[in-house]
């Protein structure tokens, strides 16, 4: 099954979902610092993850962001009658294509830091 149609949905709705998510992450200095430092990064599954072990407080904050993402993904996926996990992946794929240089990301279980080029997306992204 290809996720190209879901990627189109993600491209359109990703901006809607990512704006409040980004705002939530940026409102908290600890999460923003962790994103900039590469301790926290984006994953191809649409959620934030940990490239390095976090403090308990940071883990709780990132978990709260991921819960809000899951709620947003669920709402949109149900309205579009698509599986939640597939929609989350489509958002994750879109997010990886727009990730800022210097930010950590996880593709296929391997953490890396975004350089000046494009990220090699996993097959699940339809590329």
Envelope shape? globular
Helix fraction, binned, reads 55-70%
Q: Number of domains in the coordinates?
A: 1
Distance between the termini: 12 Å
Number of strands: 4
Q: Give the ordered list of helices and strands.
A: HHEEHHEE
Radius of gyration: 14 Å
Any low-confidence stretches, pLDDT <50, length ≥5? 18-26
Overall average residue pLDDT? 84
* Main sheet attributes: strand count, strand direction, barrel closure: 4 strands, mixed
Tell me what portion of residues adopts beta-strand conformation.
5-15%
* Structural class by SSE content: alpha+beta
The order of strands across the largest sheet is 2-1-3-4
Summarize, please.
With 127 residues, the protein is α+β, with helices and mostly antiparallel strands. It has one domain. It has helices at residues 4-27, 29-37, 56-80, 84-97, and strands spanning 40-43, 48-50, 104-107, 110-113.
Describe the structure.
This protein has 127 residues and is an alpha+beta fold. The protein has one domain. The chain has four helices and four strands. A hairpin with a 4-residue loop joins strand 1 and strand 2. It is globular and about 35 Å long.
